[in-house]
């Protein structure tokens, strides 16, 4: 029997991937549309995904509808890995927002992002994909 090219990632490994990365994609609702945006993040002591954002459509969307999805990927020559989170976002204020200063979370783009948002994880799933990439023979070698 042939082994499946797709396998589930255990929750512990999915959390390890989340902690080991700092860039992902956040999907959120804004009115009757779904938006997705790249974003840098950190994981806090409560196992929440924490992001900084400026005033704008992302913060408005998260305020209007707290249901979000978040995703990260890793890929190498032979394998791709993906972790998807479903959760609820809320703005951190006061002491909670100040605690974020201890996390490795700084804007990658030189803009002011004063709002701190935490995503509480409701669902976590991960998959590992064995890659065959048959088109690789078409890439010229150096």
From TrEMBL:
<dbReference type="Pfam" id="PF12900">
    <property type="entry name" value="Pyridox_ox_2"/>
</dbReference>
<dbReference type="InterPro" id="IPR012349">
    <property type="entry name" value="Split_barrel_FMN-bd"/>
</dbReference>
<dbReference type="InterPro" id="IPR024747">
    <property type="entry name" value="Pyridox_Oxase-rel"/>
</dbReference>
<protein>
    <submittedName>
        <fullName>Pyridoxamine 5'-phosphate oxidase family protein</fullName>
    </submittedName>
</protein>
